[in-house]
Amino acid sequence: MDNETTTIGENVRSRGHLLRVLGVVFGLAAVVGSVIGQGILRSPGVVAEATGSETLIVALWIAGALLNCLLALGFAELGAAIPQAGGPFAFARRAFGPKTALLVACIMFVALYSSLAYLAFVVGEFLVRLGVGGGAIEPQWFGIAALALFALVNALGTRISGASQVLLSTVKGLVLIGLVIVLFASPGATVEAGGEVLRGGWLPIGTALLVILTTYDGWWNVVMYGEEVKDPGRTIPRALFGGILGVAVIYVLVNLAMLHVLTPEQMAGSTLVAADAAGAMFGEQADFALTCFGVLSVGAITNLMVMNYTRFTYAFARAGLLPAALATVSRNGTPIRAMLLPVIAASVFILTGSYSELVSLAQTVWLVVFILVNAAVIALRRREPDLPRPFRVPLYPVSIWAAQLVLVALLVIFIAQDPWYSLAGFVLSAALWAGYLLLARASGEPHFGAIDAEDLQ
């Protein structure tokens, strides 16, 4: 070990370290909690608008799960082989060096901090819709209060914050299963035989599949906790694929339950199919019940994101991209100082209202991170063939190149759908990247510290 690495290792130990106390149950909860949100309540209407075939509707949701499993292969291999806080940032640094890792950091900074603000604001909107505060409090203040609450929960320690996520994800899953049971217990809809398979050709089917893919989004968050999960070589792949398949089971059951009480024609074009389906059972109480689920669902994701984004902020600080003070870890395993940055930044975004534009800007460029993760798999297979890989991408290299083709196709589609925001997202990320490099050159290059394996135990 050279002198620089020794010094960095000593600094890591002196500032505390993350605790390896999270198990596979937390990993599964992190995936399920990140993925299941309001999308499953809205997306079925878009899918039914593309096809009147119940069989094809269900098949599209299964296809979405399989495609996400394909996209998760690279994350599983690198998450198991390089279990470090920061996930994609750590992968890019190992495979391509500091400058590419900095680009990933810039994309993640914009995309994830703004999404945290968006999620917290939505929690506030749901609370206002429930009548909390009697109309005297604006949703942005509820959103900031939610951030403060979840920051407090996370400050209590890794064990408590992890347990809270397991609890919230479990309750969220049970609520959806309860909805499925209630809908199946109701009288079935009268369906005419021979529903129209393709309502408007193959293009709407492609749109439906794209919507389904985004409804599964969020599974990658579990790789952020590589330094905190026990036996990451086994836990991370199990959590990724087990979580995606578990969500797929819930999604398929929810769609089957909706199809039990509504015809595809009734579902088609609905902006909130779940409300239409639940209305058949709960009447006027359906909106109240689904709004309560919204608070639970989005609140659980926000809680997880506070925990998640704290880890990559900590990883950036440890690498020298942010002030070293943010790389301090308390005895209970929480990088409290690192947690303050995303919470404060998200609160500012909420007050300025800029989060919506930032989320739109980052949506397309975030796919570049996925492409770089797969590129890192390929690069490290060539440069470090002896790197211990507890999980290896099956059918390599065919499977990893297939995932790349899917990602490139999605990138082209997203750019074609919204060229202005896509271009702006690339410009903003590149500007942050170039600006940081210029400042670093003027003040001295950041060290991007190489953390020795023994410091991550």
Task: Please explain how this structure is put together.
This protein is mainly α and about 450 residues long. It has a single domain, classed as Amino acid/polyamine transporter I (Up-down Bundle), CATH 1.20.1740.10. Mean pLDDT is about 85; it is low at about 1-15 and about 450-455. The relative contact order is 0.20. It has helices at about 5-15, 25-35, 40-50, 55-80, 90-95, 100-130, 140-155, 160-185, 205-215, 230-260, 265, 275-280, 285-320, 335-350, 355-385, 400-415, 420-445.
Number of strands: 0
Question: Nearest-angstrom radius of gyration?
Answer: 22 Å
- Note the main sheet: none
What's the total helix number?
17
The rounded distance between the terminal residues' Cα atoms is 17 Å
Question: Share of helix among residues?
Answer: over 70%
CATH superfamily: Amino acid/polyamine transporter I
CATH topology, anyone? Answer: Amino acid/polyamine transporter I
Pick out the low-confidence regions. Answer: 1-14, 450-457
Shape descriptor: globular
Compact summary:
The chain is mostly helical. Helices cover 73% and strands 0% of the residues. The protein is built from 17 helices and no strands.
How do the strands and helices of this protein lay out in sequence?
Layout: H1 3-14, H2 24-35, H3 39-50, H4 54-81, H5 88-96, H6 98-129, H7 139-155, H8 158-185, H9 203-215, H10 232-261, H11 264-267, H12 273-282, H13 285-318, H14 336-352, H15 355-383, H16 398-417, H17 419-443
Helix pairs in contact: 2-8, 2-10, 2-13, 3-9, 4-9, 4-10, 4-15, 4-16, 5-6, 5-15, 6-7, 6-13, 6-14, 6-15, 6-17, 7-13, 7-14, 8-10, 8-13, 12-13, 13-14, 15-16, 15-17, 16-17
Membrane topology: Multi-pass membrane protein
Protein name: Amino acid permease
Pfam families: AA_permease_2
